[in-house]
Amino acid sequence: MKLTKPLALVCAGALLASCANHSDSNQAAAPEGASVSIENCGQERQFPLAEHMLVNDGNLIASTLSVGAADQIKAVSSIQRDTPILSAKYGEQTVAGLDDIAKEYPSLEQIIAEAPDVYVAGWGYGLDEGKGITPESLQEHDIATYILSEACRQGDSSARGTMDPWEAVEQDLHNLGALTGHEDKAEEVIKDQQQRLEALRAAPKAEQTPVAFLYDSGTDALFTSGKYGAPQAILATADASNATEDIEDTWVSVGWERLAQAAPDVFVFVEYPGQELDQKIEQLKKNPATKNLPAVKEERFINLPYAMWTSGPLNIDAAEHVRKALEYFKLVPESDIEPALTLPSSTPGLKYFQAS
C-alpha cells in the first residue's frame, strides 16, 4: 500500500505516532481525505480510505467481511441467496446487521442515492454498461469503484479473467485490506488460505483425474465456467479437472453437445435463484445428450452456494467440500482433509454428496 499526500502529511506532523501504529483498531480515525494507491485490473488507482462502502454480491460481501471491514459497509445488494452461508462463516448477527438495499443488482439510481465512497462490484457482478453502471459514470458522482479481480477484462474485449483464480482472490483480499485499513487481517486470511491450499495439494491423487462439469444455470444452453473462473481453481485443487478449462474466460455459455462430449464423472452445481437444483437435475435426466451418462444415473451431484463458487474467500471452503464429495463418490482416494466450514443444513442436495 502507498500512502498518498494527505495521509503522509499527517504522519509527518503531530500525529506521527498514531499513523505509525495505523491498524484495524484505528482505521476510523484516519484524516478526512486520506487515500490509498491500489493496483486494480492492471492500473494503479487512487481510492479514498473506505468508510461507507456499497458492496454487491455474496462473494464480494464475503471478501469485505473477511478482512474485518463490516463496520465500513454502508449497504449491500444481492445478498439473499447467500445469507445462510455468509451467516455460517461470519455469524448471523454480523450478516443480519448489513443494510440490504436491493434484492438483485442495484440500479444506477440506487447506487447514487446511497452515495457510498466506494462501490465494490465487478463486470457481471453489478457493473453493466447497458445500464450505465460503469466506473466512469459513478466517478461523476464522486463514487470510486473497486472491480473484482476475477472480473477484470482482457484488453479491449469483453472476456474476463487476467490471472490465476487463486491469485485473484489473494489480490482482492490484499486490496480490500488496504482500502479499509485492515491490512493485517487481510494477510492473516491470505496465509490461512495458502496453508489450506498446501494441505489439499498434498492429498493423495487419483490415478485418473475425474472430470467435473459445472452447471450454473440454463436450459437451451448451459452457463458454466472457464479457465479464469474460480471453479477452475476449486476443482483443480480438489483433484478434478474442469470440463471447460480450455475456454479463455471466467463465466460462459456452452451447448449441450459440449457437455455430452465431456462425459463428466461428476456434476457440480451453483445454488442460484431462478432455477432450483431439482430443475437442473431434471434437465440432465431428460436431455438425450446427458440422461445416460453414468454421473447422471448414479447421481454424482455436488451443490454449493453461489458465494462459494464465485471468486472470494469461500473458494477454499468450496475446494475442501468438493474434495470430500469426490472421496464420497470414490473418484479420488481418501484423505485427512476436513472442511473448516459446515454447510448450512438448508443447502439443497446435501443428500447427494454427504453421508447421512
SSE blueprint and pairings:
Layout (H helix, E strand, L loop, with lengths): L1 E2 L1 H8 L3 H5 L14 E6 L2 E6 L4 E4 L1 H9 L6 E5 L5 H8 L1 H5 L3 E3 L5 H7 L3 E4 L13 H5 L4 E4 L17 H16 L2 H20 L8 E5 L6 E4 L4 H8 L3 E2 L8 E4 L1 H7 L3 E6 L5 H10 L7 H4 L3 E5 H4 L5 H14 L21 H4 L3
Parallel strand pairs: 4-5, 4-7, 5-6, 7-8, 9-11, 9-13, 13-14
Antiparallel strand pairs: 1-2, 2-3, 10-12
Helix pairs in contact: 8-9, 9-15, 10-15
How would you describe this structure to a colleague?
- This protein folds into two domains: 2-193, 3-Layer(aba) Sandwich (Rossmann fold); 204-353, Nitrogenase molybdenum iron protein domain (Rossmann fold, 3-Layer(aba) Sandwich), CATH 3.40.50.1980.
- It is 38% helix and 17% strand.
- The chain is α/β, with parallel strands linked by helices and 356 residues long.
- The protein has a five-stranded parallel sheet, with helices on both faces. It has a four-stranded parallel sheet with strand order 11-9-13-14.
- Strand 4 (53-56), helix 3 (58-66) and strand 5 (73-77) form a beta-alpha-beta unit.
- It starts with a strand and ends with a helix.
- It has helices at residues 5-12, 16-20, 58-66, 83-90, 92-96, 108-114, 135-139, 165-180, 183-202, 230-237, 256-262, 277-286, 294-297, 306-309, 315-328, 350-353; strands spanning 2-3, 35-40, 43-48, 53-56, 73-77, 100-102, 118-121, 144-147, 211-215, 222-225, 241-242, 251-254, 266-271, 301-305.
